[in-house]
Structure formats: C-alpha cells, structure tokens
Amino acid sequence: MRSFIHEDFLLTSEPARRLYHDYAEHMPIFDYHCHLNPAEIYENKQFSDIGEAWLAGDHYKWRLMRANAIPEEFVTGNASYREKFDRFAQIMPGLIGNPIYHWSHLELKRFFGIDELLSSQTANAVWERANEKLQGPQGAARALIAESNVRALCTTDDPVDDLRYHKMLAEDNSFTTRVLPTFRPEKALNIVDAGYPAYMQKLGAAANIYIRTLDDVKQALAARLEYFASCGCRLSDHSFGSPDFTVWDESAAEEAMRKALAGEELLDYEVAAYQSLMMDYLGELYADKGFTMQLHIGAQRNLNTLRYRALGADIGCDSIGDVVSAASLAALLDRMAVRGKLPRTILYTLNAADNDKLAAAAGCFQDESTAGKVQFGSAWWFNDHYDGMTAQIKSLANIGVLSRFVGMLTDSRSFLSYPRHEYFRRILCEVVGGWIDKGMAPADYDTIGGMIEDICFHNVWKYIGMEE
Fold it and tell me: How far apart are CA 450 and CA 453, in angstroms?
C-alpha cells in the first residue's frame, strides 16, 4: 500500500511534479520569520520526547484538542507528555481536512521516517521510534535545523532583549545556520495594555533613557534599533488588529501617552493617533537602516477571558479579526513614501477577505529601489493551509507579480515545523504546474523552474539583504 506522504504528495499533474522535484525540492530554507527561542538553539536543546517537541507551546494543536473535549490537564496542564501525546494521537484520525493532519504526518515522515498514520493504535510505535531519534544527537535542536537545510532564520525579539544568545551564536563556528534577531516593538505600540507603564520603564532602562514623553519613547526605540542592527538584525515585525492609520494628531498622541502612563482610559482616536505617529517614525528609521518592515494585520487577541486569566496569551484563544480599512493602510504607506522613507515592507493579513486589497495596495508603492519592494506576504496563521496558500498565490499572481514573491516562513515555535516549507513548495508547484498543464502558461521549465527556485529561496535572500 502506498504511504500517505509519498514523493508526489499534493502534486496531481506532470508539470507540477517536474517543477517540484527538479526545482523546488532541494532549495535551502531562509526562515525569515519564526518564534524559535535563540537560547534553545544556542544550548542545543534536547527534547525529552515527541510529546514535548510537538505539544509544548503549540497552540494550533491545543485548539484542536480542546475542540475534541480533551481536558485542559492533557493540553496545557500537568499531565505527562506521554499522556498528552496519547490524547493527541487519539484525535488525529478525526483531523482530516485540517492542516495539522498534513503537517504532522509530513513531520513524522521527514524527521523520523515514519509512514504509519498516527492514531491510538499506532501511538506506541510512533512514540518509541520518534523518541529514539529525539533522545540522540540527531534529535537536538541544531541537528533538526541543519537536517532541514535551513541556511538562516530570524527569531522574534523584544527591543529590551540583550540578544546575548544571538551574539554567542554569531561567534559559534560549529553551527553554520545564521540566527538573526527581529525587532518587534509590540509592547511599545500596545498603549492600551495595562502593562504599558511598566514596559516603558524596562525600555527606558535598556536604552538608558528616562521615559516620560513621546520623544523619549522615540529616542529609546531608536537606540535599541541601533543595537539590534549591530547584532545582525535586518527586519522588524508588527502585529495589529484593524488599526486606523488615517488619524494624524500629534497632540492626541502625546495625550494618549500621558493617559497611559497615568493608568487612565484612552479614547480610540488617541490610540490611533499614537500608533500612527509611532509607526511613521519607526518606518523612517527602518528605511534609513535598510530594514524590512513586516506588518501582520487582522488578529483579534485573547477572546476567551476565562482562559486568558488562567493561562495568559498565546494559548490558542486568538481569532480572525475585521478587515483593515484600505484608507488606513494607504495612509501609513503613503506618508512614508511621500518623504522617500518607505522601507521594504511585507503585508500579511489574517482575514482572507483582505487578500486582493493587500495585493493591490502593495502594487501602488513599488519603485526602482527594490524589485517587489512592497510584498503581499505568505498566507498567515489561520490561512496557513492548502486553500489559504493557494488563494494567496493566485491573488498575488492575478494582481501583482508572483515571480518576485519572497515566499514561505514557518511563523512557528517548533523545531519540527520546517516541513511547512515543503508543504508550501508542493502547493506552489501544484498551482503553477496546473497552469502549464491547462495551457495557461508555457512549458518553459528553464524560466518557470527558475521562478520557482527564486520564490523558494533566492528572492527573500536578496530582499532581506543577506548577500551584503
């Protein structure tokens, strides 16, 4: 019987198979946006078992376990990893249609050579075989990264971080994958959060600036950005729900900060004014430093108050938010472009209804400085599945220029998530190969195969400036 994950998985036409096997399959990975822990990379973390490697911190899997009425003790609670793994294996047969079903079986095949479908019946054999590797030298964090052909990766880091693990990794010649930080001033932008005043103290201490005014925040962020750049940083990252960047009112932004530091309630207009002004300032800094700015738009955070109080953030209770206003996005990009201070920018949306909008907006701000300067980024989070990736690829191709696309990223906390790049590459080749098969694109494999290789690796490597 043919295994589920076989060499032509997801590839239904001969052109698709040719594009994947001859061009995409062996390209290296540049995982330019992930949430791996740099300390775990430096210390070469060894996992106790597949339960820890799969289920410690994976809110994708946690959501599915809760949807199957698995008690929280076996999700984020104190049950052993073996017990958690067994509960996950129990629900796996019912997850057909969810990307976790594909991802999990790809990971079992690629890292452990396991062809069996995960279920209660196969759980013990999978457990033993996976752990045999994970508990040996080839199962440590660095070996898993190297096995996945990862040329470089970018973690996600707060401006107050001292980046000591990044600096130690840069000096460690025994590990050839480059590990770079990403500047993510999320807490400095989230002015409505109750922890904002305390965070301003941390930011000020890191930058050696006493923060009381908006100018103080700007100076502190500029100082930390300079430090990040000295440690190899080349990207920033920002996450918003449905921001209103049309508001431009410096006095309202100052008032927002005063109120936030005093613990007073802010008006929506004041929040918008603060975020508009700060993003405009940061964008100019990024342009001057040659950074790429990433904007993740459309997430609605911590919907389940009871679970948030018990477990905190990032535990599987975020969702798709409202679409972003086209006027809002245009206002942010245009203010910078008018001054010649628009950095390379990647736009991601959590709401698929915004796909064409972001692809179209990106096209308005291209210029001669960089091919594909403003990108409609890869399918993100709740769109990170077969249909979502297909829709993103087609939207970009229809409205923009697919050949300039900077491709896939894991956006993951897991060292076992790199087969997601394979998943994307197979879908990319299935879409483009389908065009060839239907006569919608020429069977010019030298040209189209080169495009596939560019999307898989070369485009983003050049775009981020890794050749400099």
Answer: 5
Are residues 107 and 393 in contact, defined by beta-carbon separation less than 8 angstroms? no
**In tens digits, what is the pLDDT along the chain, a chain of 468 residues?**
679 999 999 999 999 999 999 999 999 999 999 999 999 999 999 999 999 999 999 999 999 999 999 999 999 999 999 999 999 999 999 999 999 999 999 999 999 999 999 999 999 999 999 999 999 999 999 999 999 999 999 999 999 999 999 999 999 999 999 999 999 999 999 999 999 999 999 999 999 999 999 999 999 999 999 999 999 999 999 999 999 999 999 999 999 999 999 999 999 999 999 999 999 999 999 999 999 999 999 999 999 999 999 999 999 999 999 989 999 999 999 999 999 999 999 999 999 999 999 999 999 999 999 999 999 999 999 999 999 999 999 999 999 999 999 999 999 999 999 999 999 999 999 999 999 999 999 999 999 999 999 999 999 999 999 986
| Cβ–Cβ < 8 Å for 294, 236 | yes
* Residue in 261, 317, 348, 323 with CA at minimum distance from that of residue 32: 348
Look at the pTM and tell me if it is higher than 0.70.
yes
Radius of gyration, alpha carbons of the chain: 22
Taking the mean position of all CA atoms in its chain, how far away is CA 121? 34
Alpha-carbon distance of 311 to 302, in angstroms, equals 10
The rounded distance, in Å, linking the Cα atoms of 353 and 69 is 30
Strand partners of residue 346? 294, 375
For 184, the 3-state DSSP assignment is coil
Find the helix or strand (DSSP H, E) in which 31 lies: strand 29-31
The CA-atom distances, in angstroms, between 335 and each of 245, 293, 316 are 10, 15, 35
DSSP string, 243-296: --TT---HHHHHHHHHHHHHTPPPPHHHHHHHHHHHHHHHHHHHHHHTPEEEEE
| End-to-end CA separation in angstroms for the chain | 49
Distance CA(136)–CA(44), nearest Å, equals 12
Backbone angles phi, psi at 370, to 5 degrees: -150, 130
Question: Phi and psi (nearest 5°) for 361?
Answer: -65, -40
Which residue has 């796996």 as its token pair?
A: 92
Residue 277 in tokens: 């002004």
Closest CA to 285 of 362, 199, 188: 188
User: Between 326-338 and 355-363, two packed helices, what is the crossing angle to 10 degrees?
Assistant: 20
> How many CB atoms within 10 Å of residue 429?
29
